[in-house]
Amino acid sequence: MAIAQTERRPQKVLLATDLTPAGDRALDRAVQLATDWCAQLVVCHVIEASSLRPWGIEQRVRNVELEIERLVQGASLAREPTRHIVIGDPAERVIEHVQAIGADFIVTGPAHGKIIGDKLLGSTAARIVRQAKKPVLAVRRRVLGPYSTVAIAVDFSEPSQQAFHCARSLLSKSAFTLIHAYAVAPDYRGRNADRSLDEVEVEERSRVLRNAEQDMADLIGKARQEVSIETLLEEGSPDAVMTAYVDKRWPDLVVAGTRGRSATPQALIGSVTEGLLKSLPCDVLAVPAKLTA
After folding, report:
1. Which secondary-structure segment (H or E) carries 24?
2. Cα distance between residue 104 and residue 95, in whole Å
């Protein structure tokens, strides 16, 4: 398991920006994190182009250079951020560039759909998360300071463990709430056939909760001695439970792994995490199950 690899703070943070006004929030968060981690900040913009529409690239590059300069002007960093401009599909080129320059943390804007012609594409942020082997932070809110309250979606799978340990390593001064959504599915057959439905359901709920409490204790281990941790066990679907929690408690950040317990090897991002990326009104950090060095 790759959990130990998250113990090192990121050394190179890549900000993937579309240069829209909302991109200022992602820049401010990238600057704050790079400062806290003493990391180098790379500001990257992908000019969307294909072999079918190659014209005007030189002028577009010059325009982007000016826009990036305006974006980073005034950013307070110990090291001047570097600027990279690449051409092609935004999600694909960001992933390629992350690997090429050795970045170990990605910051991007909020997830949203994009229509090109008659085709609705998945959000660039979600597409990056599907392929990324590094943590990806989708920024939605204005930066008011470091992340103070962090909610982590857990199902006790390896991706949950990775997400928890990654968040604990990167944001050790934050207060964490680990949230587990559980389901109760009583079996009314066999030995339960002659028992009342309520009795069987109560027994099954009690069993599920006992197991969840033990799994939660195993996941946290000695971490309570190092960081502030609360736990919440709530019946319901993961997306509904997380949405309700965010609506009620308004955490600064939600953290989730990109592979769930029921995911197939081909599913590089769980549908729950992708839904959270697109729907939650707060920042979301997606952590891949297998982080690469």
Report:
1. helix 23-37
2. 11
pLDDT for 55 equals 63
Burial class (CB in 10 A: 0-12, 13-18, 19+), 28: middle
pLDDT tier at 292 (50, 70, 90 boundaries)?
low
**Owning domain of residue 241:** 3-186+190-287
Structural domains in the chain (count): 1
For residues 29-54, one letter each, b for 16 or more C-beta atoms within 10 angstroms of the residue's C-beta and e for the rest, the string is bbbbbbbebebbbbbbbbbeeeeeee
Q: Give residue 57's pLDDT.
A: 80
CB neighbour class for 113 (10 Å; exposed up to 12, middle 13-18, buried from 19) = exposed
Element (H, E) at 75: none
Question: What is the sign, positive or negative, of the torsion defined by CA atoms of 184, 187, 188, 192?
Answer: negative
Band (8; pLDDT cuts 50, 70, 90): confident
Looking up residue 204, the CATH number of its domain turns out to be 3.40.50.12370
pLDDT at 28: 93
Torsion of CA 102, 105, 108, 113, to 10 degrees: 90
